[in-house]
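Query form — protein Ornithine carbamoyltransferase

QUESTION: What is the three-dimensional structure of this chain?
INPUT:
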Amino acid sequence: MTRAKKAKAPATPALLTDATLPAPAMAGRDFLSNLDMTPQELRAVLDTAHSMKRGQWRQVKPLAGLTLALIFEKASLRTRTTFDVGMYQLGGHAITLTNQEIGLGTRERISDVARNLERWVDGVMGRVYLQQTLQELAQHARIPVINGLSDMLHPVQLLADYQTIEEHLGEVRGKRIVYIGDGNNLANSHIHMGVLTGADVTIVTPVGYEPNGAVLMDAVKQGARITLTNDLAAVDGADVLYTDVWISMGQEAEAEHRRRAFRGYQVNAAMLDRIAPNGIFLHCLPAHYGEEVVEEATDHPKSCVFNQAENRLHAQKALLYHILGGTQPRW
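ANSWER: The structure tokens for Ornithine carbamoyltransferase are given below.
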């Protein structure tokens, strides 16, 4: 009788040491847009995010002695928690500053806030209303500034999104990524990622709610494969279906008008049946159930929504390492 072979235990990933850490790819740089990185730098950040999720960074603290200021004009669950926990896990420290405390542009000039922070901390992350606020902070601060969300872009979210896509679908180039809903900061950042990755990005949105025209035209000029349509048939066969809220913070006065405009663009189980058999559904959260999505969609077998939320931690830790890694503590 032939004895069955004992199954091999899965290999344990090798733990990194201070001597085997990759070189920081974006040392000391601002990150206000996904296009602030090259495709090669994006690859470095995503590779690091994957290795961090595998637990290979457990015994290193590359940001020991460093501090990140977290500025919040907007409420936050995922951005605040993951940047704070990420700095802690990498050996650093985060300090949260709400707009009530610092009053960007009201209590103090943005330039003065930047010139103060650069003397105390090693980097700034801002979740703000206006992209211009981040640009002004970056202009006046001699330390890196990271865009945690603005009216124009949400680049850190897209890092987590593409980490999630790679986990489930492998190579991103040529995959059909269909974003359905408001042509907001998420849609703009999806277009930027189409430039960087070679993904086939389709934006499905009602007339009058298209993404930023300059972002779209610049991407097309760079050779990105971007499709803009209001035809829901574009969902059919998608490798990734993505949606976001119809009513963002600050748009509450437009709520009823927007609900009418987006009727029919809701992601539900029937819509998920139309995407590719191995396709996945993503939503950056928070979800407004009964509007852009229903609960059975986030709980659907094709949903990777909460894995995507987890990856905010790993992707942002990777970004922090590649921007702040190698910085010497100033005390």
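ADDITIONAL NOTE: Strands lie at 67-72, 93-98, 123-127, 145-149, 176-180, 200-204, 225-229, 240-243, 280-283.
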